[in-house]
Amino acid sequence: MLAAAELDLAIGQIDNLLSKLQANNPKRGASTEAESHQERPANKTRSHTPPHAQSNGSPAAILSSSTQAATVDLNNLFAKAQLQVARVVSVEEIDSVKLYKCVVELSGGIMKQVMAGLKQHIAKDELLHSLVVVITNLKAAKLAGELSEAMILAAQAPLPDEPKAELVKALRPAEGSEPGDAVFLEGQTTAGSTFSKTLKSDIWKKIVAELEVHSHIACFAQQKLVTHKGPIRLESSIPDGAGIH
Q1: Is there a contact between 154 and 244 (Cβ–Cβ < 8 Å)?
Q2: Per residue in 201-240, is it b (16+ CB within 10 Å) or e — as a string?
Q3: What is the pLDDT of residues 51-75, one digit of tens each?
Q4: One-character DSSP codes across 119-161
Q5: 217: helix, coil or strand?
Q6: pLDDT tens digits, 215-228
Q7: Does residue 102 surpass a pLDDT of 80?
Q8: pLDDT one-digit tens code per residue, 22-43
Q9: Which of 45, 117, 183, 196 is a plausible cystine mate for 80, CB 3.0–4.6 Å?
């Protein structure tokens, strides 16, 4: 009972103290309430930022970044191959079912011998004196006992009516191109390019895997191959998706 009496006394003293404080500052209670409302405004409208604007880590952003990185890697791969325009100055038939022995001219009158596997597909007269695209930094090789110092690029596709036969056509540089003109990707520049002195065959295979025809234009990873005069084209008989090698 004593403890309860002491507790009642303490509560009474506290009530008395609070009454005195309110008497000395009658507006305190109201101002405290107002301040409380100012600090915690009711139904405050919060700004909403769309999820795609809140973070650059969205799936679309990640995919875009990955695509750009992959494109850069492919472009760096393509830059290792030295592709040029050349003029075929001679075509010789040799004792081979598939091969022509050709000589092509590059810039400055430089000549290279090319053993071209086009005999079954392109007539000698069609090839002679034509402008073609060649790769010139592959390792020289002997074919049919003859040295081959470059490769003429051509597109190939199966014939619709003869599944076992192929349609093969050489790439055609834009009108006005000249021997020695660089072949590069549209939108890129050849300035300062450093080609591999000798391109490894496995690297070339990776490049070839991305070479194909789109809308009668030679492309690498869907980017147009061009000279300073315009795109590298194929005859209309070559369908989209045809490979180039």
Answers
A1: yes
A2: eeebeebbebbbbeebbbbbbebbbbbeeebbbbeeebee
A3: 444 446 665 555 466 666 667 789 9
A4: TTTS-HHHHTT-EEEEE--BPPEEETTEEE--EE-EEEEEETT
A5: strand
A6: 999 999 999 999 99
A7: yes
A8: 555 544 444 444 444 444 444 4
A9: 196
**Full DSSP string of 50-78:** -HHHH-TTSHHHHHHHHHHHHHHHHHHHH
The sign of the torsion formed by the CA atoms of 215, 151, 187, 70 equals positive
Positive or negative, the CA dihedral 7, 11, 12, 16 is positive
Q: How far apart are the first and last CA of the chain?
A: 107
Q: Which residues pair with 243 in a beta bridge?
A: 156, 212
- Reference 165, options 209, 124, 121, 208; nearest CA is 121
User: What global pTM score does this model have?
Assistant: 0.72
In angstroms, how far is CA 170 from the centroid of its own chain?
25
> What are the Cα distances from residue 103, in Å, to 88, 132, 177, 204?
6, 12, 18, 22
- Chain length of the chain: 245
Residue with tokens 């799936």: 59
pLDDT in tens, 186-203: 998 765 567 889 999 999
